[in-house]
Amino acid sequence: MTDNETRELFHLLNQRVRMITKEMNTVLSDHGLYHSQWSIIFCLNQFGPMTQTAVWKYLNVEAPTVTRTLSRMEKNGWTIRKHGADKRERLIELTEAAKEKFTAVNKAVAQAEKEMAQLLSSEEIQQLQHLLRKLATTEGE
Amino acid sequence: MTDNETRELFHLLNQRVRMITKEMNTVLSDHGLYHSQWSIIFCLNQFGPMTQTAVWKYLNVEAPTVTRTLSRMEKNGWTIRKHGADKRERLIELTEAAKEKFTAVNKAVAQAEKEMAQLLSSEEIQQLQHLLRKLATTEGE
DNA sequence: ATGAATTAGTTACCCAGGTAAATAAATTGA
DNA sequence: TCAATTTATTTACCTGGGTAACTAATTCAT
């Protein structure tokens, strides 16, 4: 019985994340962005210029994923990549245009997230976070 | 403050699902499968032969996604597509080879899921399901 | 000091999700 | 009946996740 509960849980997780991503993409399309691109912009806004490695480690994705997304973002004028003191690494920063648009996009995203979480109370959101953190945790998170 | 909690929640959700999918893919790679292919096999095993539309509606994905995955699965000998009475639709069923391998793969998947959920009690799993169902729910389901 | 190991990033190639538009078969309606 | 609409599936093309293998720069160890 627990096998089925667990299976159902993972199925549900998959579905929700797809729904959320889809909704985010439609909201962001008004601003010429995709959800993964937005997550990088949000990260850069919060921490300031950072290396690609810092980005993919923070977002918990692999390096090639970030390389690809950043090259699209650079092409679309959201970010610039500069070579740092260590010539291997590249420092990523937001363009002026990106900084200007940030507030508006952030507002739209926050609104969409709020709507999607509207059925949950603040306590439930925290509990959901707590339970998710206990799921599929190998060690350091 | 709730804005940030919500944002953190969605971030966490994304990460967990990626970790889970990644782990599933490594487990399934021993059997020559990917997680999406497995979810179709599981579905067909449970419900018997069904149309593609029934599959994508059940899995909550778009039709082209299923078309693509099924054509790979057919090429690899997991499924066959037959034309039904209604000549537009295609009935999908598992091959004999797929049926034979099902038990072994199912066991491996259940074991992996169990490990990933090991930190959660049965009650917590149910609660997690409950909270996820309340998230991003537009209406039906 | 220099050769070996590590690290940062890229490239090539998978699978999986999406949308938009096309095709073909069935259904509806005047 | 037969044109218009709907339905099932496919095709083409996009983003985004992954791995494996590569280059180039740096660090480590002898």
UniProtKB/TrEMBL annotation, chains A, B:
InterPro entries: HTH_MarR-typ, WH-like_DNA-bd_sf, WH_DNA-bd_sf
Keyword Oxidoreductase: no
Signal peptide: none
SUPFAM superfamilies according to UniProt: Winged helix' DNA-binding domain
Chain segments annotated as coiled-coil in the UniProt record: none
GO molecular-function term, one example from the UniProt record: DNA-binding transcription factor activity
Gene3D superfamilies according to UniProt: Winged helix-like DNA-binding domain superfamily/Winged helix DNA-binding domain
A Pfam family recorded for this sequence: MarR
UniProtKB keywords: DNA-binding, Transcription, Transcription regulation
Record SMART domains: HTH_MARR
UniProt domain HTH marR-type: residue ranges: 6-137
Name recorded for this polypeptide: DNA-binding transcriptional regulator, MarR family
